[in-house]
Write a structure and sequence with these properties.
alpha/beta, Rossmann fold, eight-stranded mixed sheet, 10 helices
C-alpha cells in the first residue's frame, strides 16, 4: 500500500509528543525508554523497535516518525549498557556485557509488559545486534509477536578473512588474560580488523551519518565506542547458539528480513540460511547501493525498505477491529 510522503522531519529534535521514560528490569536496572503513541488511542498497532550495538533511540527518530505517521505506536528502549541505560563495564565508552543472555532476559521481561499495556497487533523490529537478540528471543520461544522485521540482523559477524573459530578463540584468550572489559578494536565498527572508515560501513548518506555526532554533542551520555573483548566473545558464542536449526525451524512468526549483500559488518550467508530455515520468513535484499544501516540509508534504499516493511505488515498483521484492542 502506497502512503503519502510525510512532511520533512527534523531528525535532530525529539518531537514534543514523544515521552522519554524509565523502565526497570526485574533486577532493578534502569532502562531508558521512548514512547511515541497515537494521540487518539486508535493505533494501527504497536511496534517495539530494538536498536543495534552502541545505538541509542535518537538515531532512529526519523524511522519512528515514518511508522508513527502510518498509525503505529512506537516504543524503543535502549539496551542495558548503552544509550541512556547506563554502562555494564568500568569504561564509559566501551560497550561491555558479560553475557548476551542478560539482554535476552531484558527483552523478554520488557516485551511481556509492553504486550500487555499496548494494543495489537504487536510487531518487534530489531536492527543488527537488536535483530540478533530479537531472533534469539523468537527462536528460544521467549517472545511471540504477531510479526517481526529484522534489519541487517547480526546473526554472525562478518568474517574479515579469519575463520570464526579462530576469532572466537582470540576473544576467549583476551578475556582469560584479563582484558574482557577492554575495547576490542579502535574507532571502526569491524572487530579484529584494521581501522576502516566507519561511515562507509554504515550508510551512504553523509547527513544521516552526521546525525549521530549531533546527538553525541547534544546528549553526551548516549555516546559509546567499541565493544569489549567479552562482547566479542559473547557475540560469537550467542551466534553459535542462535544457529540451532531446530529452534529456527520452530519460529512460526512471520518475519521480514531486510538485508544487503554488501554488508561488511554481518555475515550475509548466515542470514540467507536463517531465512530458509524459518518457515514464515521472507527477505528484501539490497546490493552495493546499501550499507549496514538500511533504515538510515540514502532515500532510494530507505524508501524501498520502508515500503517493503509497510506492505509486509499490511499483509501479515492487518489492523484489528476496535473492539478487539
Amino acid at each position: 500500500m502506497n502512503r503519502p510522503n510525510p512532511p520533512i522531519f527534523d531528525r535532530r529534535s525529539v518531537p514534543d509528543e514523544v515521552q522519554e521514560l524509565v523502565w526497570h528490569a526485574p533486577d532493578g536496572w534502569a532502562i531508558r525508554q521512548l514512547d511515541w503513541l497515537q494521540p487518539d488511542k486508535n493505533a494501527r498497532g504497536s511496534i517495539l523497535f530494538m536498536t543495534g550495538r552502541a545505538d541509542f533511540y535518537e538515531k532512529y527518530l526519523e524511522t519512528f516518525n515514518d511508522f508513527h505517521a502510518a498509525g503505529w505506536n512506537i516504543t524503543s528502549p535502549d539496551w542495558r549498557g548503552q544509550g541512556g541505560s547506563g554502562r555494564c563495564g568500568p569504561h564509559r565508552h566501551v560497550g561491555h556485557i558479560e553475557s548476551f543472555s542478560i539482554w535476552v532476559d531484558d527483552l523478554t521481561a520488557f516485551y511481556r509488559q509492553w504486550r500487555r499495556d499496548y494494543p495489537g497487533p504487536h510487531i518487534v523490529i530489531g536492527h543488527s545486534m537488536g535483530g540478533h537478540l530479537v531472533a534469539r528471543a523468537l527462536a528460544e520461544q521467549r517472545i511471540h509477536s504477531d510479526a517481526a522485521i529484522l534489519s541487517a540482523p547480526m546473526l554472525a559477524l562478518a568474517g574479515g578473512g579469519m575463520p570464526e573459530w579462530t576469532a572466537h578463540l582470540v576473544a576467549k584468550i583476551m578475556c582469560l588474560f584479563g582484558r574482557g572489559n577492554r575495547r576490542a578494536w579502535k574507532v571502526s565498527e569491524k572487530p579484529l580488523e584494521p581501522e576502516v572508515l566507519r561511515q562507509g560501513l554504515l550508510t551512504h548518506d553523509a547527513t544521516r551519518y552526521s546525525d549521530e555526532f549531533f546527538w553525541f554533542k547534544e546528549r553526551p551520555f548516549v555516546r559509546l565506542g567499541p565493544g569489549s573483548w567479552r562482547w566479542v566473545e559473547q557475540a560469537y558464542a550467542s551466534a553459535r547458539k542462535l544457529r540451532n536449526k531446530k529452534n529456527l525451524k520452530a519460529v512460526d512468526t512471520p518475519v521480514l528480513v531486510l538485508a544487503t549483500s554488501a554488508d561488511e559488518l554481518v555475515d550475509h550467508a548466515t542470514i540467507e540460511r536463517a531465512v530458509h530455515l524459518m518457515p514464515n520468513a521472507e527477505m528484501k535484499l539490497f546490493g552495493p547501493e546499501s550499507a549496514h544501516e538500511i533504515y538510515r540509508e540514502a532515500n532510494p534504499v530507505r524508501n524501498a525498505a520502508l515500503q517493503a516493511s509497510f506492505e509486509f505488515l499490511d499483509r501479515v498483521a492487518p489492523q484489528k477491529p476496535l473492539h478487539e484492542h
